[in-house]
Design a protein that fits this description.
This protein is α+β, with helices and mostly antiparallel strands. Helices cover about 60% and strands about 15% of the residues. The protein contains nine helices and seven strands; from the N terminus they run ααααααβαββαββαββ. The strands form two sheets. The protein has a five-stranded mixed sheet with strand order 2-4-5-7-6, covered by helices on one side. This is Histidine kinase.
């Protein structure tokens, strides 16, 4: 059985259980209630699947609203009629018989009159409409919620893919610039940069296609990137990158923190900064991750630093992936720029263990 079929079976089992308990409160025992519910359940099931898999695809999704209204009205009438026929022909006499087994003198006026009189009595028609439609429209509402959620997930995935794709060319452009600068200097470090870049590109092309990657691997890529940048700046940059806590068992969306590191190198290593420095600290406690990165700024730069594309990218991805489980703080001071990111890795909305 497919996963969808299993979900549907579980749903109808739950419906049967709830209705059995609800109706059983007014019956001699829950066994009688269960038999009654099982007898009317096929009407609910047929009604629901007719709406969800026949009426809605043909009329609602195609915006044929008059046909939709008439179809729903007709099916509501048919369902109520079938429900009422089942009551008259089986469930009501069955319930009366069970009650009279304990109370022989019990009279139930619902069964008074001829078949036609019972069928057309307004109060029982309304009751049949209510009972035949309540369960079905609760189920239809749940179906709409599921469809909305799936549609939202597709939109989120599309936006995440777009945001992730922005990182790749931006990073590649920066790294190739570094390689070009070292080549002009005829630096012996160029081969090391090519090897490092090769590993990073392999990661981007073949490992970042999943929603989540091993945190340890993502940290390795950040460390590779930092090492490549250190080759470029040599002694002009004081850089520290520390990692603490258990990172081997955690997963994280790929390249989430790399734009923050790129931003620090872009604005913290300006030629106008005499003693350029960057401090990176990543710590994990349980499922809580804290990433802090701070860098120097040119002393004459009183306006806010750039790098908004990278920061905006991170903000958008965090809003989609960790809407209620992240904190991103940015401190833009006169000579220092600090970003602190805190995440609850267990609250990632997009889970993928592949």
């Amino acid at each position: 059985m497919t996963q969808t079929l299993v979900k549907h079976i579980i749903f109808w089992i739950i419906v049967t259980f709830v209705l059995t308990i609800f109706y059983g409160m007014g019956m001699p025992n829950y066994g009688i209630s269960l038999i009654v519910i099982l007898s009317i359940l096929p009407v609910h099931i047929a009604y629901f699947y007719t709406i969800v898999y026949w009426i809605l695809p043909r009329f609602l999704y195609r915006r044929k609203y008059p046909q939709l209204f008439l179809s729903l009205l007709f099916n509501a009438f048919v369902a109520a009629l079938l429900f009422r026929l089942l009551e008259i022909g089986f469930t009501d006499p069955f319930i009366l018989k069970a009650v009279r087994a304990e109370r022989p003198d019990y009279q139930w006026h619902k069964l008074d009159g001829t078949f036609w009189q019972q069928l057309t009595k307004p109060i029982y028609i309304v009751n049949a409409l209510e009972q035949s439609n309540l369960v079905v429209w609760v189920a239809v509402s749940l179906k709409f919620v599921q469809m909305w959620y799936e549609k939202r997930q597709l939109a989120v995935q599309s936006e995440l893919s777009a945001l992730k794709s922005q990182i790749h060319p931006h990073f590649l452009f920066n790294t190739l610039n570094n390689l070009y600068a070292l080549t002009l200097k005829q630096s012996t470090q160029s081969p090391a940069i090519v090897l490092g870049l090769s590993d990073i590109l392999r990661y981007m092309l073949y490992e970042c296609s999943t929603d989540n990657v091993a945190l340890k691997r993502d940290v390795e890529i950040m460390q590779h990137y930092v090492e490549l940048e250190k080759l470029r700046y040599e002694e002009r940059l004081d850089l520290n990158f520390s990692v603490s806590g258990r990172i081997t068992d955690q997963r994280i969306p790929p390249l989430l923190m790399l734009p923050l590191i790129e931003n620090a190198f872009k604005h913290g290593t300006s030629e106008t900064v005499e003693d350029a420095w960057i401090n990176i600290d990543l710590s994990v406690k349980g499922h809580k991750l804290k990433f802090k990165i701070s860098n120097s700024k040119p002393p004459e730069s009183n306006k806010k630093t750039g790098g908004q594309i990278g920061l905006d990218n991170v903000r958008k991805r965090l809003a989609l992936l960790f809407p209620y489980a992240h904190q991103l703080q940015v401190f833009d001071e006169e000579e220092i720029f600090v970003v602190i990111l805190q995440l609850d890795l267990k609250q990632n909305l997009v889970q993928n263990e592949n």
